[in-house]
Amino acid sequence: MDRDAATTDRLKKLLTQLISITQSGQLHWEQQAGSAHRYARWKNNLLILGPAAPVSDSKAPRYLFITPFDSPSCIEINSDDRELGKQLMELVTLVEHGSGNEPPTDPFAINEDILSRLS
């Protein structure tokens, strides 16, 4: 993927921050029921990390997809990226070890809190 050095630097800093807040427990990742990825909510963005294959499956391409809740725009970082792939795999490993034993959840389930905000 061709991009300028400033953009690559910003993405590296973003991955560093995501790794740091995941390690500290400030960012919690979950696995959606019936899905092949993990997700987290952060700064009004949906973060999708996939697929949820074991880290030992080193041939499975990985991705981090980021999309704001209030916009159709998005960012994707892929494990095949020669400048960011290694750092992305560090995040994948961290997330798998931190949330691998948690039960899947349904982030789109209807709940009272959401319904109350709409009334």
Q: What share of residues is helical?
A: 25-40%
Q: Write down the secondary-structure element order.
A: HEEEEEHH
* Low-pLDDT runs: none
Kindly report how far apart the N and C termini lie. 45 Å
Morphology call: globular
| Beta-strand content estimate | 15-25%
Q: Report the biggest beta sheet as strand number plus sense, adding barrel if it closes.
A: 5 strands, antiparallel
Count of individual helical segments = 3
Query: Which structural class do the helices and strands define?
Result: alpha+beta
Question: Quick summary of this structure?
Answer:
With 119 residues, the chain is an alpha+beta fold.
Task: Walk me through this protein's architecture.
This protein is an alpha+beta fold. 34% of the residues lie in helices and 19% in strands. The chain contains three helices and five strands. The model has no long low-confidence stretch (mean pLDDT 82).
Which structural traits does this protein have?
5 strands; 3 helices; alpha+beta; five-stranded antiparallel sheet; 19% strand; 119 residues
